[in-house]
Design goal:
mainly beta, 5-stranded mixed β-sheet, 4-stranded parallel β-sheet, 1 helix, 15 strands, globular
Length: 171
């Protein structure tokens, strides 16, 4: 399909509120969520998911259900949520449910930080009920790089913001 040429850039997204859900991604906390599409450009965004009402389920600062030729660079994807339902892996910096080799045209120069896992990389068959037993939950940045072939220049550092509530410039 033809690229949509949608650019999402220079945003601060924080304090996302959601109840969460045990068996799906339908009620999770997400900073940027792409349902489907081709050619989105995601540049220079700061996402800070922090303690809120979610107590179960999946959350990710950047989440893609299905997409292709996405250009994602120079973002901060911070998932600092504190909930723990025994499935800490449900908290991720980046998540892609239907990952393919064409999902990303460019994915690099980002910063991923999460109190759960760095990434979720699925092929549509993610075990939402017991994600701890699912190999698509990628623990470290090194494992994410190996699995995706992307993010050679991406960091894994806890960002320090001027104010985590309303000013996501770095200190």
């Amino acid at each position: 399909s033809n690229p949509v040429n949608v650019v999402v850039s220079n945003n601060f997204i924080t304090d996302v509120q959601t109840p969460g859900a045990n068996n799906s991604n339908s009620q999770g906390a997400y900073g940027i969520y792409i349902e489907t599409g081709n050619g989105y450009k995601i540049y220079h965004n700061s996402i800070n998911l922090k303690q809120q009402s979610q107590t179960t389920g999946i959350s990710a600062a950047f989440f893609v259900v299905s997409g292709s030729n996405l250009d994602v660079r120079n973002n901060i994807f911070n998932n600092n949520l504190e909930y723990d339902n025994g499935n800490a892996v449900g908290r991720a910096s980046i998540g892609v449910i239907n990952y393919t080799n064409s999902t990303f045209a460019h994915l690099d120069y980002n910063n991923y930080y999460s109190k759960g896992v760095v990434g979720i990389k699925g092929s549509g068959d993610i075990n939402w009920v017991n994600p701890a037993n699912n190999t698509v939950f990628i623990q470290t940045l090194a494992q994410w790089r190996t699995s995706t072939g992307n993010d050679a220049n991406t960091a894994n550092v806890l960002p320090v913001f001027v104010n985590e509530n309303n000013d996501l410039h770095l200190v």
